[in-house]
Amino acid sequence: MPKRVETIVMHDSATPVIGDVEKGGSVILTTVDTLVSQARANALWPLTFGLACCAIEMMATVASRFDLARFGSEAFRATPRQADVMIIAGRLSKKMAPVLRQIYDQMPEPKWVISMGACASSGGVYNNYAIVQGADQVVPVDVYVPGCPPSPDALIYGVMKLQQKIKRPKGSFRELGLTEMKPRTLEDDANMEDRLARKAGK
Amino acid sequence: MTSYNPFRDVAKPILKGMAITAMRIKRKKVTIQYPEERREQFTRTRWRHVLTRYDSGLEKCIGCSLCAGACPARCIYVEAAENTDEARFSPGERYAARYEINMIRCIFCGYCAEACPTGAIVLRKDFELANYERDDFVYTKEMLLEPVR
């Protein structure tokens, strides 16, 4: 690996910085909301849930070269009770799907899901009877990270995307067509018509 | 059993540990501060697809669908149309009227680039593709096509 690292200035004054949030929602609680969402976004504890080869890249993301700890996500928890974000790393077989759903249900609110890699997001090359064609058929996915597998920096970009989503004020969630911050149940997700109507009415 | 010795049991282990820390401080830092600085990608890294153009500005893609045939994930869709003298997009007879890649299903194997007879589709090094909605991952021809120089 070449040692040279090219430096790129990411933000100028015109583009919003990741920490920037525009006010919205309740008048009294906006500041508190901002504060709470900042705190939530900067301590996303992932769940140790590697399903396939993507998990190797997920491990590399936490290692010293990429160091996910810089984003507050180094504490991979082996129990869903202590995790905030579930990184579905790898192909999700139909046999594993109920297990994934149960683990998701056991996570405390607020919770988020990152679908890592082509297989978890859409099935990838495994368009067959054994693999779930997209983990969003089982759990609501917040951020999709394409790649096979996504490199550690691509996953870090996905985590940054999720942080951006969390830091957004709640008021603009519906108009942006994003998932709402309410307890999500299996019945809610099964009701696809409702979700599609909400998306169409954005 | 030897008796408790504050130097041997407390101070010495601490100094030993601190010596290791001091040794490591001099070493080169391995962490890449990712959003601010990026690692140099390998020369043959395959990430986001780009549909290239000739120097004249014409598209290299001739809409032959060989990339779609070579794709193991079946994530490419090509719809070809005939070039006319009034509306000419590519030097050949046909051009790609629609060219779509489902980025979420793509495994970035590069078989499309290998199969392409004109070298129209190439995989460049932009890896920051994560997004929120499934629908946003179908990259259309407008998104993939290189801007005219």
Structure description:
The complex is a heterodimer of chains A (202) and B (149). With 202 residues, chain A is of the alpha/beta class. Chain A has seven helices and five strands, in the order βαβαβαβαβααα. Chain A has helices at 30-41, 54-62, 97-106, 117-122, 152-167, 186-190, 192-200, and strands spanning 5-7, 46-47, 85-89, 112-116, 143-145. In chain A, helix 4 (117-122) links the parallel strand 4 (112-116) and strand 5. Chain B has 149 residues and is of the alpha+beta class. Chain B is built from four helices and six strands, in the order H-E-E-H-E-E-H-E-E-H. The longest helix of chain B is centred in the first third of the chain and has 20 residues, at 6-25. The termini of chain B are far apart. The interface between A and B is large, with 41 and 32 residues. Strand 1 (5-7) of chain A pairs antiparallel with strand 1 (37-39) of chain B.
Blueprint of the fold:
The complex is a heterodimer of chains A (202) and B (149).
Chain A: E1 5-7, H1 30-41, E2 46-47, H2 54-62, E3 85-89, H3 97-106, E4 112-116, H4 117-122, E5 143-145, H5 152-167, H6 186-190, H7 192-200
Parallel strand pairs in A: 2-3, 3-4, 4-5
Chain B: H1 6-25, E1 37-39, E2 49-51, H2 66-70, E3 76-82, E4 94-102, H3 111-115, E5 121-123, E6 138-139, H4 141-144
Antiparallel strand pairs in B: 2-5, 3-4, 4-6
